[in-house]
Design a protein that fits this description.
159 residues, alpha/beta, Rossmann fold, 7-stranded mixed beta sheet
């Protein structure tokens, strides 16, 4: 699986309301099934939660995902202005509970957080680049793309 590329031409994303991507209709279903994801720890709101009951659970800003325990495999699409905070907390939870963490992130390979939490801890982490740009959707209509590339990062701390 290392080096897998997700093709953005097959993705659909809802327009972010609080500085994050929302959910993918196609590729995230694949990731959720592949990694047996049970928690979306950084859902902007219920409508964009990547995991919902009865298949799993999610934390909204009101629930404060940074104060929760992540006892099952989880996914996050953290607010862009708090990426390092979410990655650090997520990695601590993944190690504590021996679970897998998946994150959708901007492909900012020059950022300190990319090196501190992804690159510098290979092979605990995997990087899956997304070919092209993600597509935003709102009300079933195309609503643009971010001005940057994205990636999927995976950390497996399972026993």
């Amino acid at each position: 699986m290392f080096g897998t590329t997700i093709d953005s031409s097959k993705n659909t994303y809802e327009t972010p309301k609080t500085g994050n991507f929302g959910k993918s209709q196609i590729s995230l279903d694949y990731l959720i099934d592949l990694f047996k994801i049970k928690i979306d720890v950084a859902a902007a709101n219920e409508s964009v939660a990547m995991v919902k009951p009865p298949h799993g659970r999610f934390f909204t800003p009101e629930m404060d995902g940074l104060k929760q325990e992540y006892t099952e495999n989880f996914i996050m699409n953290p607010p862009f202005n708090q990426i390092p905070t979410w990655l650090e907390y997520g990695l601590n939870q993944a190690e504590k509970h021996k679970v897998t963490m998946v994150a959708i992130l901007p492909a900012y390979t020059d950022a300190d957080w990319f090196h501190n939490y992804i690159w510098d801890i290979l092979p605990k982490s995997q990087i899956w680049p997304i070919r092209g740009r993600l597509n935003y959707w709102k009300d079933n209509m195309p609503a643009g793309s971010p001005p940057f590339g994205s990636l999927i990062a995976i950390w497996s701390m399972e026993k």
